[in-house]
Amino acid sequence: MTAEPSLHPLGSGLELVPTSHEPQSGKDYTSDQEVRWCPGCGDYAVLKAVQSFLPDLGLRRENIVFVSGIGCSSRFPYYLDTFGMHSIHGRAPAIATGIAVSRPDLSVWVVTGDGDALSIGGNHLIHALRRNVNLTILLFNNRIYGLTKGQYSPTSEAGKVTKSTPVGSIDHPFNPVSLALGAEATFVARTIDSDRRHLTSVLAAAAAHRGAALVEIYQNCPIFNDGAFDDLRGPASDDRILRLEPGLDVTVGDRTWRHDPTAVDPSDQFALSRLEDPVPVGIFRQVERATYDDEAREQVASAVAASTATREERLAGLLNAGDTWTVV
Amino acid sequence: MPRQVTRLDRVVIRFAGDSGDGMQLTGTRFTQESAIFGNDLMTLPNFPAEIRAPQGTIPGVSSFQIHFADHDILTAGDAPDVLVAMNPAALRANLADLPKGATIIVDTHDFTGRNLAKAGYDADPLESGELDAYQLHRVDLTGMTVEAVKEFGLSRKDAARAKNMFALGLLCWLYGRPTESTIGFLERQFARAPEIRDANILAFTTGWNFGETTETFAVRYEIAPAAQAPGTYRNITGNLALAHGLVAAAVRSGLPLFLGSYPITPASDILHELSRQKVFGVTTFQAEDEIAGIGAALGAAYAGSLGVTTTSGPGVSLKSEAIGLAVALELPLLVVNVQRGGPSTGLPTKTEQADLLQAMYGRNGEAPIPIVAPSTPSDCFAAALEAARIAITWRTPVMLLSDGYLANGSEPWRIPDLDDLPAIDPGFATTPNHTSKASSNGADEFWPYQRDPETLARPWAVPGTAGLEHRIGGLEKGDGHGNISYDPANHDLMVHTRAAKVARIADTLPPLTVDDPSAARGDGGARVLVVGWGSTYGPIAAGVRLVRGAGHDVAQVHLRHLNPLPRDLGEILKRYDRVLVPEMNLGQLSLLLRARYLVDAVGLNVVRGLPLTSGEIADAIEELL
Ligand code: SF4
């Protein structure tokens, strides 16, 4: 195969969402609420990036919904002037599934963290991914519990000394990208809070993807896990980071191949996700598969289309179905 | 052959056999025929939690009881008059429920050494004399069925399977049931397997002819149709009625219905039924777990659907946190709990009503939710509509407390006129509702917690509505504007306001109906009031009839709304000297009544996994007279 694999447009994740004719700016997406993260928190950079990127989508602001769980990053929806719900720990993907399935005209985003998505909410995350619900999931990974003041998380490195693990954690950590690929996600990417350009380009691709898109965002928590990703920042990081592009030659162990995020077989993408030095960032996987919400709506729509009766007439028919008898 | 015909006013028949013997189908068909014939009836299926428990054993016994009559009846009957036992285990498991003199029809075919041993019999009860006090009919149902259908060349196993239809045919002859609907049913059911279809129909008619031509049964029985109010009727189970009620609520509110659910006994049939109703715009989402089921339903409610989740008690335990979120978000949501025996996994296929306090208080913080409970299988329809009315009008999660008896039990239902169903107005918010300081021309802001002054309900503003963008969440919200607030006085206000909102629902409830014929006499009359809720309605009303039949006065009131309680309940309780509260739990409504009204309620608390009997209720009433 000699053709260059490319990120061809795979059916827009936003094609059913109404667009706005008004010019928009980042300010339009900024709510009147005071942002209450700690000074220097990586969440600020992601918020800024999202606020300045959303106008580029050109959607009607009222058709955008952000749903979050619990944790520092889950305060995110309060700071965006869209529709938003700050829900309960780990359940945002389930709630967002109900929104996305019932409303094709909404752009639905989930904001979650490593504890929220991978610990208490692990079940909902993998099922949202395998069903391929049309959601864009931003997983802020700071490898620590911030809001509860510094316990190790499911992505903390083994041996981590925290308040709840004074002699080191003995948990083997999840790799969120590997997990998502294992759950048969159709879009999986990784980016980092400090690289606004990369972050924005990955978000744009994720939003455009029709289906569940998981974006792991390495996010610094200066209070409880400062510097977790320092070696991936700045000019000195060049040989620590592998910026994935379609067609890029990649080497894992003694094998080299051309990275193809659109490859249906995820084996190479998974092999890449295991790489720790350098750390790959960018789009690991971007494939097309029918989405749960589109198919669920299609089943309902074809049932409705097959009947010419009004809803009331159908109700009368339903209630009078089966063996009936009449008393006069 | 001319046969003596005896008129009866009511009969209770129990069909019992192995789980694989088709007793539920047999009972359901007999029920359908009786319904079409015009009898009033109620049914009580009873089956093991295992799909196929070891064949021929007591744990594998499945039964179906039907009570049918020429007058209106209220229960599936305390004790069977007739037991049809397909094997020794079915006989042994049910014999203790039979009064002396009852009729027993046994399939003699399985009364052999091995099967007797499996059921725990040392000696054959058909020969030992232990059934002398009953009218025993020995019939080789299996043998005659196999003989009758041999022309179809079925395997012996398949041929023997039709024995339940032979038994049904025989019972249809014995009680003069019309047979057309069962033949029609078998034709439809087995349309793709003509041999099986014909074998079943032949077994059914052969059973009928066996009654007619042999002298095994000297008497036939006649149970005249009951007087019923004019209208069109069908026989319906509680789960089906509840599912229909949800669809009706969606139609009457103009909302799409979204069900998020995880399979659980005995609620799954509601999921199955709604998954077939896509033509109404119904979306069913079989979630990865109970939490995701309610989570998705809540998400859909936020987005403007009638959000519903269906489950049983263990599932409610898992959903508690999300119900609390719905309380905080103040969004409409229906939580259907088809209660079963607890605690923990408990008795999945048996009935109980021990989740009332869970519904009232099973959440962290002050998290009041309205509770509605249907009283009979067909009442599940109206109760579902009522729960939806409350949820949508007051923007609140509502708990609908059905139970295993209502879910699987059935009764005739007069199909309502659509015009008589309540209209429900979702009243979505479409415009800003608050005027900022900067505004010179009216409302220019949207405040998600600015309440309707009458109901205290907040606006339901769905995504896609321009200008109403807002954020809600589980953190405490400031009164009106809805932004996060940690202010102590605000929290106090919000806790009280959420409680007041639920309490105000009582303003819209009709006065309670007290069934007390003695009240009209004006001589003081009844001194005892029986208070119930949920599926105990039938047994209580039947028990009350027994007591009145014995010449005593007693009053009855039944609660559909458990939270808030009706405004007039306190005054009604005060009118009587003694208050009896029969419940299939250890006194949960009693506790609420005692706490709320300082009334010395006496409980009758039996938790066998079966409905209360009218006899035990009558005894409890008589003790208080
Ligand atoms: S604790 Fe850490 S993650 Fe949380 S807001 Fe502070 S810096 Fe950010």
UniProtKB/TrEMBL annotation, chain A:
Taxonomy, superkingdom: Bacteria
Gene Ontology terms for molecular function: magnesium ion binding; oxidoreductase activity, acting on the aldehyde or oxo group of donors, iron-sulfur protein as acceptor; thiamine pyrophosphate binding
GO BP term, pick one: cellular respiration
Residue ranges of the region described as Disordered: 1-32
Keyword set includes Nucleus: no
Domain Thiamine pyrophosphate enzyme TPP-binding: 70-217
The protein, known as: 2-oxoglutarate ferredoxin oxidoreductase subunit beta
From TrEMBL, chain B:
InterPro entries referenced in this protein's UniProt entry, alphabetically: 2-oxoacid/accept_OxRdtase_asu, Pyruvate:ferred/Flavod_OxRd, Pyrv/ketoisovalerate_OxRed_cat, Pyrv_Fd/Flavodoxin_OxRdtase_N, Pyrv_flavodox_OxRed_cen, THDP-binding, Transketo_C/PFOR_II
GO biological process: response to oxidative stress
Span of domain Pyruvate/ketoisovalerate oxidoreductase catalytic: 20-207
One annotated GO molecular function: magnesium ion binding
Keywords in alphabetical order: Oxidoreductase
Keyword Chaperone: no
Domain (Pyruvate flavodoxin/ferredoxin oxidoreductase pyrimidine binding) ranges: 257-472
Keyword Oxidoreductase in record: yes
Pfam family, one: POR
Domain of life: Bacteria
Protein name: 2-oxoglutarate ferredoxin oxidoreductase subunit alpha
Organism, scientific name: Nocardioides terrae
Lineage: Bacteria, Bacillati, Actinomycetota, Actinomycetes, Propionibacteriales
